[in-house]
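Long-time lurker, first post. I've been practising inverse folding by hand and with some scripts of my own, and I keep getting stuck on stretches where the structure tokens seem ambiguous. Below is the full token string for one chain I'm working on. Before anyone asks, I'm not after the true native sequence, just a reasonable design that respects the backbone. If someone could post their per-position residues I'd love to compare against what I wrote down in my notebook.
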């Protein structure tokens, strides 16, 4: 009778399908854990989508800004030819014509100069500006060297002549300036080196030459 009573709970436990302690895994998946995993996956997808949309928005803003600032690049390059011709016309006016008393000639000169100024103003309104780098240090990013000019009076690498002025569109180079670069002159660090070598000379005037010669002999 005692053995039958002790075995009754074990038989009931087996009939109810309760998992044993050694198994450690339920027969069916936990629905709460599945929902938590699904929620985490959905949250990850939403965050990725938001990040992609933010990147798209910023990229679109940059493209729109570039289109507004640099959308006239091709048109501006075509207009530069007109500006160059106007500059050549102004430079072709000699001092004799400017000194002429003829009212028609004076009106023609004033009209050409006024047209050039208005053209440059119109270009500046669109972000196009002309620059003349004469006397500046040569910069391959905005200058195009056509030849070298032997000129000892200018530091080497300085723009000595400007054949054609350059133009900038915003922060970009619309057309580099065609220049001639000086050579044969002193480099920028030349005077500094010479000055460094000459600084000890005044100090030697106040030193006794005899101890200096003795030290030289001892060292040898």
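-- Answer (accepted) --
I ran through it position by position. Result:
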């Amino acid at each position: 009778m005692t053995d039958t009573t002790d075995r009754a709970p074990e038989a009931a436990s087996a009939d109810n399908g309760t998992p044993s302690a050694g198994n450690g895994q339920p027969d069916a998946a936990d629905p709460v854990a599945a929902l938590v995993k699904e929620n985490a996956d959905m949250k990850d997808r939403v965050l990725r989508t938001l990040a992609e949309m933010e990147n798209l928005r910023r990229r679109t803003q940059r493209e729109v800004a570039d289109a507004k600032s640099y959308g006239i690049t091709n048109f501006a390059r075509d207009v530069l030819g007109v500006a160059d011709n106007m500059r050549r016309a102004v430079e072709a006016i000699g001092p004799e014509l400017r000194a002429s008393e003829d009212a028609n000639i004076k009106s023609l000169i004033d009209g050409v100069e006024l047209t050039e100024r208005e053209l440059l103003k119109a270009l500046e309104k669109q972000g196009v500006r002309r620059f003349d780098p004469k006397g500046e240090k040569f910069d391959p990013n905005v200058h195009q060297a056509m030849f070298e000019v032997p000129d000892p009076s200018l530091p080497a690498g300085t723009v000595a002549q400007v054949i054609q002025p350059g133009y900038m569109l915003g922060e970009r180079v619309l057309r580099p300036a065609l220049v001639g670069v000086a050579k044969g002159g002193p480099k920028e660090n030349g005077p500094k080196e010479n000055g460094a070598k000459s600084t000890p000379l005044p100090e030697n005037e106040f030193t006794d030459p005899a101890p200096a010669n003795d030290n030289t002999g001892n060292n040898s």
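A couple of notes from the structure itself: The longest strand covers residues 143-150. The chain is about 55% helix and 15% strand. Happy to go over any region you disagree with.
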